[in-house]
Write a structure and sequence with these properties.
By secondary structure, the protein is α/β, with parallel strands linked by helices. It is built from 23 helices and 12 strands. This is Methyltransferase domain-containing protein.
């Protein structure tokens, strides 16, 4: 059992049911912090439990590690909205005895239309599994539920189902699992909310959560869109366009559950059968000429919409070159030197998971820096710089080694990051959303963070390689965004860090990034802007020692 003063909220659904919309709606309330699919590990964990690959105790242990976070002071409810939680309800209930559940239900005709249009359970997905890409969409596909492995039917019966029937089965099966699991716990701790009625249910939801009632706006996210030029990403075809074959299949698999929750659904949905059903079905058949995973297609389309043509074509070229090499059994990887060069986010996260390590422990191992992160955070804490504050800013968080630990200590409502590596910035924002906010980065300013808003501004391993003028340009903005009584923490190479031995070591390593900053000039610059140096220490970095300084901004009251 995990203790903490926050009430845990879990929003359960089938997917394609508004889980992102309800999370963003609840996040508008000052007493609620609700994340959407913030734990990618749940994709695997849930399916391994459903397929009876792992036991109750094993899954419970993994969930304990996953949800073991410090209480968040500024909110009373911490929520997680995820479509993979349905079969984990009894274990979550055991871990969090006081938690609450919201069952978000969407009409089966609409869910099936949406999932079928996205190719769920299709031969197209099997082709993607064969490619074994590192895309997050691959994990969703790899861990798609299978009726035979869930014990719902035999392998022969599962193989005989059409793609459409498998989507129908999934909607009924998962909602039945949710219903059965919720009815094992106190009925006062869970609530059914229908997506179609969510706007009129806001007051009831807030009353259920025992928070103050207030107006909230529902913004429907992740809507299905037609992607121009891409054959295998389709707009959903709804009930009114279905032919007799699809309607019969839906009634067989979903009719009873629809009658239970949407009594007049058939009358409301009744329309003329589509005369083009076979044409629609033909258009949804798998084509071996389409090699790219569907989720990547969608993200690439979104990048075009955001006026990022360079990144679009970069990812396009990278994928197709990689596919050509994969055909002949080769895999392209970025080359890096342990402890100095660039490491790819997807590859690093995947390797760390394979080794059963968190990203921090894994990168410390490959860079021979074991325990360094904890040591530096301990120094920061002992100096008094890790006190709770509303907003934090970090320059160059990279793999998030420090970010994770500092969020636990400081518990900010917002954590701005300025990171030039697009893949790591995206991973950090996705993993630690909504607390972490990725800011546009130009490499020398914090122009998107307001004046005097941060209680902590810090950087690690950044100013060891930035040219002097860029470094001081950052210093100027760190001074600007730090509020009175706040702290600025960073490291750099002072003159004393470089002697003849260190120079020979750097020359032999062929690593050319070290930059020397004069210690006296750095301290003097901050002193002239009302900062007092409260602590400094050195730690091993590269072939020398970087020097940490911790400044506190003095206000009128404490001058």
């Amino acid at each position: 059992m995990l203790a903490g003063k926050n009430i845990r909220l879990f929003i359960i659904s089938t997917g394609r049911s508004g889980s992102q919309s309800i999370a963003q709606m609840l996040n508008q309330h000052p007493e609620i912090l609700c994340k959407h699919e913030s734990y990618p590990e749940l994709i695997r964990i849930s399916t391994e439990f459903a397929h009876r690959i792992k036991s109750w105790e094993t899954i419970k242990h993994e969930l304990l590690q996953l949800f073991e976070i410090s209480p968040i002071n500024k909110v009373s409810i911490v929520g997680e909205s995820d479509q993979k939680l349905g079969n984990l309800i009894p274990i979550l209930n055991e871990i969090f005895p006081d938690c609450k559940f919201i069952w978000l239900l969407r009409k089966g005709t609409d869910v099936v239309a949406s999932t079928f249009a996205r190719g769920w359970f299709s031969e197209y997905e099997q082709h993607i599994c064969d490619l074994q890409t590192q895309d997050i969409g691959y994990q969703w596909i790899l861990h798609r539920l299978k009726g035979n492995l869930c014990g719902a039917m035999s392998a022969t019966e599962w193989d005989c189902l059409s793609d459409f029937e498998k989507n129908c089965w999934y909607w009924t099966y998962w909602n039945t699992v949710i219903y059965d699991n919720l009815h094992l716990i106190d009925q006062n701790r869970w609530k059914l909310v229908k997506l179609e009625q969510i706007e009129s249910s806001i007051d009831d939801i807030l009353e259920f959560l025992h928070v103050e009632k207030m107006p909230l706006t529902v913004s429907y996210k992740n809507r299905a869109k037609q992607v121009p030029g891409w054959k295998h990403y389709h707009l959903p075809v709804y009930w009114s366009q279905w032919g007799n074959t699809r309607r019969t299949a839906f009634n067989k698999w979903c009719g009873d559950l629809m009658n239970q929750h949407y009594e007049e659904w058939e009358r409301d949905s009744k329309a003329q059968c589509s005369t083009k059903e076979s044409e629609v079905e033909d258009n949804l058949r798998f084509s071996p000429n389409t090699l790219m995973p569907q989720p990547k297609l969608l993200r690439m389309y979104q990048k075009i919409k955001q006026y990022r043509p360079f990144l679009f074509f970069k990812h396009w070229i990278k994928y197709w070159i990689s596919s050509c090499f994969n055909t002949f059994g080769y895999e392209l990887r970025k080359k890096y030197i342990d402890g100095a060069g660039y490491i790819d986010a997807d590859e690093t996260v995947k390797t760390a998971q394979t080794k059963g390590q968190c990203v921090r422990d894994y990168v410390e191992t490959i860079w021979d820096q074991k325990g360094r992160t904890q040591q530096i955070v301990k120094e920061m804490k002992n100096a008094g710089s890790l006190i709770p504050c509303h907003r934090v800013c970090e320059i160059g968080p990279g793999t998030g080694r420090y970010l994770e630990l500092i969020i636990q200590q400081v518990q900010p409502a917002q954590y701005d990051i300025y990171e030039i590596a697009d893949d790591w910035a995206a991973w950090l924002e996705r993993t630690y959303s909504p607390v972490v906010v990725r800011q546009p980065t130009d490499g020398h300013t914090l122009q998107h963070t307001p004046n005097e808003c941060c209680g902590l501004v810090h950087a690690h391993g950044v100013f060891v390689c930035l040219p002097l003028v860029y470094a001081f340009e950052y210093f100027r903005d760190m001074i600007r965004v730090c509020h009175y009584g706040g702290y600025v923490v960073f490291d750099f190479y002072p003159e004393s860090a470089i002697d003849n031995h260190a120079i020979e070591m750097w020359l032999a390593s062929h690593r050319y990034y070290p930059v020397i900053l004069p210690r006296v000039a750095v301290i003097d610059y901050f002193s002239k802007h009302n900062f007092v140096l409260i602590h400094e220490f050195s730690t091993k970095h590269g072939h020398s020692f970087s020097h940490y300084v911790i400044f506190r901004k003095q206000g009128e009251a404490n001058r």
